[in-house]
Write a structure and sequence with these properties.
Two copies of one chain form a homodimer. Chain A has 468 residues and is an alpha/beta fold. Chain A has a domain of 241 residues: Type I PLP-dependent aspartate aminotransferase-like (Major domain) (Aspartate Aminotransferase, domain 2). Helices cover 37% and strands 12% of the residues of chain A. The first copy, chain A, has a seven-stranded mixed β-sheet, sandwiched between helices. In chain A, strands 8-9-11-10 form a four-stranded antiparallel β-sheet, with helices on one face. In chain A, helix 6 links the parallel strand 2 and strand 3. In chain A, helix 5 crosses helix 8. The longest helix of chain A is centred in the C-terminal third of the chain and has 38 residues.
């Protein structure tokens, strides 16, 4: 990984780009977001990783999903029905392929090949309940799930007998689980997380009726450590449940795990949200270790992000003693299950098992290296082309000025927040794809610039009237 | 459906069978469940639809999942690795087929054929966020999702402009969503549900820090209406969030939706848990209608149960005005999303769309008819063979005495609770399968009886000593 050393800690953007013109979610009410939508119909401001909100306004006029109605087979003869269905599926596959080819914005590794597993779709594989104890339903994949969990236990340095975890439906489920385990361990605890934290953490706080403190951030996107210390000191009478971001959603910033809380270990619980970068950081030289040798309570990562999978999935891991505490002391689990969901997708563990077995730790290390190198290349290409950028040292998320042509944003499926956009360089982003992307971006910016320049001339002509 | 009319309202079992010897979850602490485990290692008492709990005891000795470790590819050459992987997958497929062939206990329709959709596994399809508003991530299946939701809207009689809903990961997610929407609508509301309710409802109450009342049940498994009335009257000062079971987990009992609450409509919220039977009841003659024309707040059903799907999934539907209330008034959604999960499986909507398009309402009606007819047949066969049974009029869940050979229970993957077991007759349960099942059950019972009878003789011989 020596060749990616030139990465700088935080290559700062000029501040206007880092301070979005749009109010962030803590200050923007649902209503104001909608007003904004209504005010600028041509350019909906989509939040990263999220659709627009359903809000008070009954009329949402942008990006409404068209329905593909269920056909009523009674109206058609059998052959016609088959033909209609096949046409729908074939057209859809074509669309999927096109969109997969032009995807840059979300941290999903779209480069996977699970061909040998296709036959498994014939089976209803369901790991309902606890992964470690088989239920009577036999069509499950728990043995793969446990294998994958043990692989993670080795990665995160926790003994096989000391951990508990499961394969989730997505990063959000892992976060909901981690925060719940924290709350049950410290029922009176206050939830702390930075303002650039994924929305699911504060959603958990509201669902669970917890007091939550939103802490400010540094320019890099890391939590403001001094501000956090201030809150912790002021609330010293109550325990702390602290969310640590291992790569924030927008800027890929990594909160420093090794700061002192000033609390004794029985009075804080640290949840690590490592949705994307939690899978990458163990393979990054010089990165802080995410390990259960530190006093953390739980880690959540996604499986469909860096690993890549047809379905969203993830892993959450905690210490066995917390789960025991949950089931005996508070019994939210009804003494029967320790997962958020009841039925659980049994295909996801097989995808993970398959990828890890094929790639191994070494293959993943190479993927990480490639991503970081290509992220650095993209940043250099954009800098050279005069586009302002930012790249955190430990991240493959390249932040840059939001392109002003909405069609370009949609084509490349960029996640945007206010004035900034980002590309998350995943293993499926090749140098060739970066070439096309940068070329099209520069052309798009040129079109906007030319249009603006000509607009000046047009205005001048109108003002000059017949004089010209 | 005329030919299934002989079904009786509630064919009662003698009471010992209906009163499990094992304390139920409301009286049994996590600890007592474990003690019971330890006390009877040969016959773990598995709760229906659930694995055993993770509890205080650090040693759980039954049904521990064996791990299938991730292989480290570095240790093997490429060909050997491929061969090893293929062997694992092939063996696993064989096991899946065998288990699928001998499954009777869980309400999963294992009879589906999604062959034409197999190519879709190449794509990472993710409907992250709200189904109705497209996010920037282009590889989604929202158009299918909306088509499916509109199909359900027609089924449950709600106007397209009045509903909101989404395709969930399972019945539990739908229940977590429905109860959360109810709590946000009535923050001070008390949660009421019967003791035979699926565990996810009370789990929701604990997660959301709600006051909850567990109401007793009638022999049929329905909620005890008088007891519920009593609680509602006693707590009249606070609003009510009432869970109504459209088919309980164990007995398939349907709570009567049409009872008076005594509360004005703005002071109660009814969530209908229709995991399995919510999909069947619209097609059952003489069954009470589950419809949004009644004052209900939300409905949750599973997609992998009656419909059948490789992955667990479901649908939750509520009134649009509640969702608006949630996002504007309480903001647990962070003003951005209205679903429990963030990333959402985009394959599930396509499975449902495909099944509904192929079968139509008429095809589903025929499936329901077949299930009810075969459930009645199974009950008659068991009655004739001297096995005590129970079958609720509106259910395809045949309850009977728990078989005493654990190997039989495991082979047929029966869900058991205390002294009772059940078979949920799904469309994949054929008459031929019922024949095999009943024959093997009777043989199993005979083996147990013979063993017990011979034990008496053996004891007598020991007692008689040399006299014989």
């Amino acid at each position: 990984m020596e060749d990616i050393l030139p990465l700088v800690r935080t290559a700062k953007l000029p501040s206007p780009v880092l301070k979005p013109a749009v109010p962030r979610e803590d200050s923007a009410s649902a209503e104001s977001v909608v007003q904004q939508q209504d005010a600028a119909p041509g350019s909906p401001r989509l939040a990263p990783y999220q659709a627009l909100p359903v809000t008070k306004s009954t009329i949402i006029t942008h990006n409404i999903t068209p329905a593909l109605p269920v056909l009523e087979p009674g109206e058609l003869d059998k052959e016609e029905l088959e033909a209609r269905i096949n046409k729908v599926i074939d057209d859809y596959k074509e669309k999927l392929q096109l969109r997969t080819d032009h995807h840059m914005g979300y941290p999903y590794n779209l480069d996977f090949d699970y061909g040998p597993l296709e036959g498994l779709q014939k089976y209803c594989i369901n790991n309902l309940g606890d992964p470690f104890i088989e239920s009577n339903y036999g069509v499950h994949s728990r043995e793969f799930e446990i294998g994958v969990l043990q692989w993670f236990a080795r990665l995160w340095e926790i003994e096989v007998d000391d951990f508990w975890g499961y394969i989730t439906n997505c990063g959000t489920e892992g976060n909901l689980h981690g925060i719940l385990v924290g709350r049950e361990a410290l029922p009176d605890g206050i939830l702390y997380a930075s303002r650039e934290t994924h929305y699911s953490i504060f959603k958990a706080g509201r669902m669970y009726r917890m007091d939550a403190v939103k802490v400010g951030t540094l320019d890099s996107g890391e939590i403001d450590y001094d501000e956090l210390q201030g809150h912790l000191a002021a609330n010293a009478a109550r325990p702390a449940i602290i969310n640590i971001n291992i790569g924030t959603t927008v800027k890929g910033a990594v909160d420093d795990l090794d700061r002192e809380t000033g609390y004794t270990e029985d009075r804080f619980f640290i949840h690590c949200d490592g949705a994307l970068f939690g899978m990458m950081i163990p393979f990054v030289k010089r990165a802080p270790m995410v390990t259960f040798k530190k006093p953390i309570g739980s880690i959540s990562v996604s499986g469909h992000k860096f690993v890549g999978s047809p379905v969203p999935c993830g892993v959450v891991m905690t210490r066995l003693r917390y789960i025991k505490g949950v089931s005996s002391d508070v019994e939210y689990l009804n003494s029967r299950d320790a997962t958020i969901m009841g039925s659980r997708n049994g295909h996801a563990p097989i995808y993970m098992w398959y990828t890890f077995t094929r790639k191994g730790y070494e293959g993943l290390r190479k993927d990480v290296e490639k991503c970081l190198r290509n992220a650095h290349l993209l940043k250099s290409m954009l800098d050279t082309a005069g586009v302002r950028t930012m790249l955190n040292e430990l991240s493959s998320t390249v932040v840059f000025e939001r392109p002003r042509e909405e069609s370009f944003v949609r084509k490349w499926q960029l996640a945007c927040e206010g004035d900034i956009a980002h590309v998350v360089v995943m293993p499926n982003i090749t140098i060739r794809k970066l070439e096309t992307f940068v070329q099209e971006l520069v052309e798009s910016r040129a079109r906007v610039s030319v249009a603006e320049a000509l607009k000046l001339a047009e205005d001048a002509r109108a003002h000059a009237g017949d004089e010209e």
